[in-house]
Amino acid sequence: MRETTLTCAHRPEQLVHELVDSGDTVLQAEGLRLAREGLHAGLLAPALVRAHLIRLLGVAGADVVAVALGELGEPWAALDGLPSGLLSPFLAAAAVHTRPEVAEAALAAAAHHGHGGLLRQVVDDPDLPPGLRRRAMELLGDLADRGDIGAVTAIAARDPLLFGGPVLTCLRGLHRRGHFPEGPHVPSIIGLALADHSIPAHEVATILFTCRQVMFRVLVDAAADAPSWPRRLALLVALGRQGTAELPIGDAITRLLPSAPAPGPFLDAIRALRHAEAEDAVIALLPSAPAAALGALEAIGGHRTVTALREGLGLATDESVAVIAPHLRAVRNRALEVLWHLTHDPSQRRGLLVRLDPADLPERIAADLGGPDERELALLSSHLDPDEPVAALCRLAAHGGAGTLPVIADLLLRIVAELAASWEPGAITPRDESGQPAGEPVVPRRSCTPYAAWDVVSTSGDGSGRPACSTRRLRTRPATPSSRPWRWICWTGPDCRAASRRSCSNSCSAPPTRAPARGHTACCGTETGACASR
């Protein structure tokens, strides 16, 4: 029988019928195989195959029943719904422990046939295995509606560690279908996220975006010494990255900063949010938390930070022997790196160079030395061939610095405009003649890349934050006919990832966007040439 195919049978319907009714598990399995084969080959009617599958649900072989249930969960079989009474026996506690694989197939079939009540019974039954209950909670997201959100979150609140992740999957399914949580649901969802740290913070912020005001109030409603603040801060940062400019997230964190017994998480949140207004509060914490404060000042620092670091490192005077403040001695190299990258005045940089110890150069300063002269860069970028934008981009990427960002932005705009034009009917697709993606290799100098793009992930470590930062700048330009193709590709391009979504909200101010919720992405710049050549 294993070598038999239904296409060779003279009477396929009779053959399948006799195999299914044979009572032998092996023959019934072959009958199931031939029934599926006949269905997909168009030899058997769907109604006939469905009737055979339903009869096979009563056989003794667990493998046959599981495969039959799996086939009944396919779209062709779900057009005519199965009664819940046909599936509920497989989800009873005794049957689940005896044949777990059948229970999983029955659960999937119940979801495909719209039996939300049966899924709720599985979720509520404490005698069933935890994995099956978690799966039932996840599947509810395709069947529940807005009115069920309160009951679903209440069930999950009884055991957050069991249902925390599954209920978020359920809410994500509701979110996709346009059923959003309301204000009264926010405290319970936040409670689940605080109890289960494996729940991604950005997904919580996405699901609760429509209730962002309530979410913000719930998250900041805690004493500064509450042990839940690290998790609360992660959720606040995720909410801030949703483009919620109307919420004073940064100000709320800054107010709590002086009274926080452990300021490290607060400083990390300020760094992530690039909240420049917190500069004075962060400088005040340099003596008590120097490492974390330097990390935040690296993102938000300005002239006040430069002054404080020069004084703390003993560089504010002309004495040859610098007296370093006690709180900066353990993080001297890190402080020097931050000072170096925040110092833009050439005379101050030259003064700092004189005071550096050649035998103990901070790594990031050493990597930044020997950069190109700005006048030479101006000459290099003044006569680029407009007909060869990819070659010009590679040329600037190999030698450029932070001052080349406007030119790179114009080149990227030209490259992608040509790409968009090539999609018109009858147009010729441009080909990349450089042989390598634009932007590789790039001198790995941090000063070439604005701080806001340092967090952009680059697999090759080639300083690709520059094109990513330029991407964000292009998106803030006024809309023009030539910029529309670029903007469209930035939001929808198949090879453009969300790396620059995380870049530059400080030195590259971009309009608030809900990239995680809307699925919008921006060109990451790590494979600029690849994006431009397709």
Work out the helix count: 32
* E-strand count: 0
Residue windows where pLDDT falls under 50 for at least 5 positions: 433-444, 448-453, 456-466, 481-534
Q: What is the terminal-to-terminal distance?
A: 51 Å
What is the CA-based Rg, rounded? 31 Å
Average pLDDT value? 79
**In terms of structural class, how would the helical and strand content be classed?**
mainly alpha
How would you sum up the major sheet?
Answer: none
What portion of the residues fall into strands of 2 or more residues?
under 5%
Shape: elongated
Assign a percent range to the helix content. 55-70%
List the helices and strands and how they pair.
Layout: H1 12-20, H2 25-41, H3 46-56, H4 62-72, H5 75-78, H6 84-87, H7 93-98, H8 100-112, H9 116-124, H10 130-139, H11 149-158, H12 160-176, H13 186-195, H14 201-207, H15 212-220, H16 229-240, H17 249-256, H18 264-273, H19 279-284, H20 290-300, H21 303-312, H22 326-329, H23 332-342, H24 346-355, H25 363-368, H26 374-380, H27 389-399, H28 405-422, H29 465-475, H30 484-492, H31 515-518, H32 528-532
Helix pairs in contact: 1-2, 2-3, 2-4, 3-4, 4-8, 8-10, 9-10, 10-12, 11-12, 11-13, 14-16, 15-16, 16-18, 17-18, 18-20, 20-23, 21-23, 27-28, 28-29, 28-30
A few lines on this structure:
With 534 residues, the protein is mainly alpha-helical. Helix content is 56%, strand content 0%.
